[in-house]
């Protein structure tokens, strides 16, 4: 049962930050509420003040007019899924949004809420890592940007100060023609693991730069630098020759624990398996070959 609270509806980011500063730990920002209201009903959080940010201008738009795209904090997953700009410049992001929860959740759940909640099983944070994403924070002290890898500190914990508001996220879409994919697996409500991969081609037939991140297994999403370095400079024709080594490097990077999603050993093995599948999918997209086979409880974006 929800405990009593006061709902505030500021019209500007400054007003919202002032409310957060005034009420301190008794206040939390509120947008879609898909996660917040759930934990409030379960008694895990009892804020006395909810600061509704949905009416704040500038937080609800998608800006694709520059090299870096920006998505406002109150943009819903459904809006990302259906955005022609996102589908044109970063189709993997649109694909990931399409597979978040269900359509009812996507219609109200927001990008900012997803990131600020810092659920370790977040698809969005993992993908934004390989897009060099940055969180935009505003407060009475001004505005700052924080890389997504630093914004998420751990399970349900971010660097956002109590009087700060997450205003949006920006990222750099990969160059046209970059084979990329996001592969996730799970049998429960939230995914067991997620693998984000992009292979930025060089001017020839090789991989100029690789981006590989593992999510849902570690306490927070993590880039796998050793695997990225191994992929750099490899031609797409040679990709199959290094797949096993890259999968091993990804598996060894995992800081897994035993939980309801499986044992630590199981998760490490699954990371290796799904890294191979992600590489196979990216290779197929690079050459125009048929898509990889479908597997139960698996989503490929």
What labels describe this entry?
301 residues; alpha+beta; Uridine Diphospho-n-acetylenolpyruvylglucosamine Reductase, domain 3; Enolase-like, domain 1; 2 domains; five-stranded antiparallel β-sheet; 15 strands; 23% strand
Measured distance between first and last alpha carbons:
37 Å
Shape: globular
How many DSSP-defined strands? 15
Examine the secondary-structure arrangement and name the CATH architecture of the largest domain: 2-Layer Sandwich
> Which residue ranges are poorly predicted, with pLDDT under 50 across at least 5 consecutive positions?
none
Percentage of residues in helical conformation: 25-40%
- Percent of residues in beta strands: 15-25%
In the residues, how many domains can be counted?
A: 2
| Largest beta-sheet characterization | 5 strands, antiparallel
- Kindly report the CATH topology of the largest domain: Uridine Diphospho-n-acetylenolpyruvylglucosamine Reductase, domain 3
Radius of gyration: 19 Å
The helix-strand sequence is EHEHEEEHHHHHHEEHEEEEEEEHHHE
Mean pLDDT across all residues, rounded?
Answer: 94
- Alpha plus pi helix count: 12
Structural class: alpha+beta
The CATH class of the largest domain is Alpha Beta
Provide the spatial order of strands within the biggest beta sheet.
4-5-10-6-7
Question: Can you offer a commentary on this structure?
Answer:
The protein is α+β, with helices and mostly antiparallel strands and 301 residues long. It has 2 domains: 1-173, Uridine Diphospho-n-acetylenolpyruvylglucosamine Reductase, domain 3, CATH 3.30.465.10; 180-300, CO dehydrogenase flavoprotein, C-terminal domain (Enolase-like, domain 1, 2-Layer Sandwich), CATH 3.30.390.50. The protein has 12 helices and 15 strands. The strands form 4 sheets. It has a 5-stranded antiparallel sheet. The protein has a 5-stranded antiparallel sheet with strand order 14-13-12-11-15, with helices on both faces. A hairpin with a 2-residue loop joins strand 8 (152-154) and strand 9 (157-158). The chain is globular and about 60 Å long.
